[in-house]
């Protein structure tokens, strides 16, 4: 934007900026009411073993459908909720709901919940996690929290200590969207992650034969193996991509090829069906 905004062309951008600001204002006002109006729900996307194809768990993904605005993408409203300091109550609702719903699945598959940096900069978040577990009855080892590298960028916060206390509860951590942030590998040795999620952009690039992307996936897999962590390839859309990430050594896969994010009833049916299969075998 900056390269076009110079000199005399600047004024032509004003109307657009105004529209964007107006849209933000409308979305933000609507977002403030979204939870109390019952407009939010969770979808669950299967995460499967790269080797066996067996169901390992689901990632809970937040959905917002507003009566007038329609379905708003989390890629849009999550950053807005973070900026407008609304992410803590929304994130708490996601966590409690995901734990309650996952506690009803017969098969002990995991549920992964995305957590925004802002939530981890608050020391009370540990209590929120503990109470989401005890209220739902979900065993701690069936909950996984997904955090992004940006958590470690802010100086002088309690985020690392909060993560330590969450680990002490028996909850797992995974590092989401790996490679898209300002990677500094130091924190990988300081915080105990169970898995690294390789961002979809690398999977897509690698499947097009981009050598750098393939090299990065290889390096991340090697790093994860030596640190005893799993690797999840995100955004696997085709059989060819599945084969590629499998060959590169990724241990788990997630993507439209294995399943889209599902409504809770379908996720429960899937979890329970796999359980029935296992019981019958
Ligand atoms: P994420 O955590 O990296 O989640 C994966 C995103 O990739 C999801 O988008 C999912 O629907 C999408 N995806 C999965 N497989 C495929 C595929 O094969 N192809 C393509 N094209 N996309 C695929 P979604 O649901 O739109 O969420 C976007 C982002 O919003 C998430 O990225 C996450 O960062 C954030 N988000 C979603 N729910 C929550 C939440 O409850 N709390 C927080 N803090 N962030 C959330
Ligand atoms: Mg995620
Ligand atoms: Mg991700
Ligand atoms: Mg991603």
UniProtKB/TrEMBL annotation:
Positions in coiled-coil regions: none
Within the intact protein, the region shown is 505 to 785 of 785
- EAL domain: residues covered: 24-275
**Protein name per the record:** EAL domain-containing protein
């Amino acid at each position: 934007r900056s390269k076009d905004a110079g000199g005399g062309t600047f004024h032509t951008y004003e109307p657009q900026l105004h529209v964007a600001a107006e849209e933000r204002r409308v979305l933000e006002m609507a977002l403030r009411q979204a939870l109390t109006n019952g407009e939010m729900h969770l979808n669950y996307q299967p995460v499967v073993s790269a080797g066996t194809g067996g169901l390992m768990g689901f990632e809970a993904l937040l959905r917002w459908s507003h009566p007038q605005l329609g379905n708003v993408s989390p890629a849009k409203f999550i950053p807005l909720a973070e900026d407008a300091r609304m992410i803590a109550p929304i994130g708490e609702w996601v966590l409690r709901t995901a734990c309650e719903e996952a506690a009803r699945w017969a098969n002990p598959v995991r549920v992964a919940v995305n957590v925004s940096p802002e939530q981890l900069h608050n020391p009370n978040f540990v209590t929120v996690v503990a109470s989401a577990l005890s209220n739902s009855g979900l065993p701690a080892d069936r909950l996984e929290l997904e955090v992004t590298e940006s958590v470690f960028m802010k100086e002088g916060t309690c985020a690392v200590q909060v993560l330590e206390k969450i680990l002490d509860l028996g909850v797992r951590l995974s590092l989401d969207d790996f490679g898209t942030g300002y990677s500094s590998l130091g924190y990988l040795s300081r915080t105990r992650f169970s898995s690294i999620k390789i961002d979809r952009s690398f999977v897509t690039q690698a499947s097009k034969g981009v050598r750098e992307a393939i090299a990065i996936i290889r390096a991340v897999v090697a790093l994860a193996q030596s640190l005893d962590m799993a690797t999840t390839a995100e955004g696997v859309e085709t059989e060819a991509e599945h084969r590629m990430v499998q060959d590169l050594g990724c241990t788990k896969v997630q993507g439209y090829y294995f399943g889209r994010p599902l409504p809770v009833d379908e996720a429960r049916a899937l979890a329970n069906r796999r359980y029935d299969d296992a019981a019958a075998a």
